[in-house]
Amino acid sequence: MDKTAQILGKSxxxxxxxxxxxxxxxxxxxxxxxxxxxxxxxxxxIFGFFLxxxxxxxxxxxxxxxxxxxxxxxxxDPVYTGALWRxxxxxxxxxxxxxxxxxxxxxxMNMPLIGxxxxxxxxxxxxxxxxxxxxxxxxxxxxxxxxVINNFLKSIGKEPIIWQYSAGWGIFWIVVYxxxxxxxxxxxxxxxxxxxxxxxxxxAADIDGAGRWAKLKFVTMPGLKPIATYIVITSLIGAIQIxxxxxxxxxxxxxxxxxxxxxxxxxDGFWDFNLGMAGxxxxxMAVIVIVATVFYYKWSTGSDKRMTIPNKxxxxxx
Amino acid sequence: MSEPLRIKIKNQFxxxxxxxxxxxxxxxxxxLYPLIFMVLAxxxxxxxxxxxxxxxFPIPKAPTxxxxxxxxxxxxxxxxxxxxxNSIIRTAYNTFWALITSFLAGYVxxxxxxxxxxxxxLIMLATQxxxxxxxxxxxxxxxxxxxxxxxxxxxxxxxxxxNTWWIYLIGGPAINIMGTFLVKQSLEKVPIELDxxxxxxxxxxxxxxxxxxxxxxxxxxxxxxxxTALGTWNDFITPFFYTSSxxxxxxxxxxxxxxxxxxxxxxxxxxxxxxTLSLGVTLPALLIFFFFQKYIVQxxxxxxxxx
Lengths: 318, 307
Fold this sequence. Notes:
The structure holds 2 protein chains of 2 kinds. By secondary structure, chain A is mostly helical. Helices cover 73% and strands 1% of the residues of chain A. In chain A, strands 1-2 form a two-stranded antiparallel ribbon. The longest helix of chain A is centred in the N-terminal third of the chain and has 32 residues, at 78-109. Chain A is globular and about 70 Å long. Chain A starts with a helix and ends in a 15-residue tail after the last helix. In chain B, 65% of the residues lie in helices and 0% in strands. Chains A and B meet through α2, α4, α5, α6 and α7 of A and α1, α2, α5, α6 and α7 of B. Chain B: It is found in: Cell membrane.
């Protein structure tokens, strides 16, 4: 009896193993990784969404469930609608400047130049530097009293500018910094797109006597359409979440006039300890990003079968 | 494109080519300017930096190597050595785990058959859309209320795992979704017959994964390693928000605490020290980039376009 049970048990275990071998291996490999992922991202993200439904000011306060009050306040308070609107147009501006300059660079890099590889690397260097470190250099350049740019202005007989007092200049430098950092990456992706355009079309255009401009307009541009949608949408999704350069260059000032939504979330959470509003803003931001991504996904899979996902840098260990 | 080199060189001197060279090199050098400035500023002593009227290319009258020496050998007024050590340990740890989790999970999703695989993968990809910045505050709360840690009676009472090494270690074994996606995409191009042949020859799963499939994925693994390493190396969020003690800081977090963001309002910002630490963050990142740029270019192209 004993022995039979043992044999039976063993063989049934073996049978299960044989029938569900793949599932068992997958479970053994994936379960621990997914558990750690839950601690790292899953739980905080879901927790964050619930925060939006509470009035919770200060870590030691008891949270009050207040339904949609935070969301109603979000759309009534000009501080939040202003920040949301600024995120959108600043994101659009950054995307436009980065992608247009990147496209120009990619067109040049795509020519049979000697030292192409060198140029590609040179332009990509800003992308690998740390935002914290390089924004500090920008701050030294923009210092009011002994900033490099103001010293230069004085030396050519112009009045120095107090950059920190002007929202316009603040936005300007945020855009310059973002474009500085992003142009190399954009150029590389455009370049990959340019190289994927069917070369025989150019030969055909040559035979038809097309000039450089006509080729750009009638061969390159249509051939780039899929990658253009990809890069525009992913850059936009990235750019409306910009906040590190805002934090380090203007810190939201003057008087909150350069606050973008993600910066506002940071401010609510870590300065004002208004956790409920931070959660509500997060949820609204996430909804915008998800809608944009789904919209893009539908659009791109409708027109061709390229599989693309949001281009997010691999960042670990939060 | 296989024209003789002589013709290629001759072509470089047509007006269009010349202008392209000038633009690419000229703008490229302008892009490099902030880094050139950083390296030059590194030669200033603390007193000279604040007293000099800074020009476009600041050259110190009495150049000093003190800042660079402090970077390599540590100095008295900062814990540079500790920051460096923490940065390096964190980067190595996260890179190691990113390689393991991406490859194993990529293998699972590319090769194994089980119920709900597609759904699980889609859910994972969908979570990638949620902006990571938004989780900072809830993560802080989670770490502060981590059960039975740091004096917590279940959820409250202590500081949880805030301000301990755990905040760096806990994220390591979590699945790296971008990496998994890249490995899956790349493994699917390897014919399944290879697996079958290896199994016929008696290789087990373990051997198949590490001796046969892994070596084929080296370029994509290199890309994952470099992006993870650079991402962790440059990351200031984790240490800045979840630690306070000096012995846990990394280089970017130390800079953040010295900058206008972390310093008390009205305090004079110690730019020479910031520049020194910035060099400490930037130069190793540049080194990694120069050694592995081939993989970055390849990898970036393959994240955007399939095939």
